Give the backbone structure.
Amino acid sequence: MTEIIALIENHIEYAPWIIFGLLLLAGFNIPISEDGMLFVAATLASRNPGHLLYLFGAVYAGAYASDLICYGLGRVLGERLTHWRFFSKLMARDKIDKVSDYYRNYGILTLLFGRFVPFGVRNLLFLTAGLGQMNAVKFAIVDFLACTVSVIVYFSVYHHYGQKIVLIIQEVNTAIFIFALLIGAYIYFKKAQ
């Protein structure tokens, strides 16, 4: 990560465009970490205060546009995505069914809380929202709110605390992910009884 930041920092005037472009690719499920891009943008902003607004704007716009792209893939291409090897592992039928159950049972809260869960869960949520034909305006508004909160929180934390907080954030994200899985398993088994 240090080498990537150094390379981008040498060309800081292009950094917002690079970050924005990489996040757009993430919307197509290219394995580019949104959290990683947030960290890079915030780190660069802390070292180059004159570029703070450009870097924040790029990471925010890129994250939101990425979500819309992912949703659009699910909505437009639908089940055909499962036939593409690139998407087949992410879109295993059991995963889609599980996320669809979350949407059915918890509605928009699934999207709001899911926005904070890393490890590819976000893209699965967005694809499934598209597959389930969730109202596009409703998705865009709810994701706009969730994206705004998550990007502001993560960017601010990374900007002010940098590398120290990365380890803590990773542990918190892992704990949230495990907690969400446990709640999901509890609810599933509770309903199965």
Summary: The CA atoms of residues 150 and 179 lie 18 Å apart.
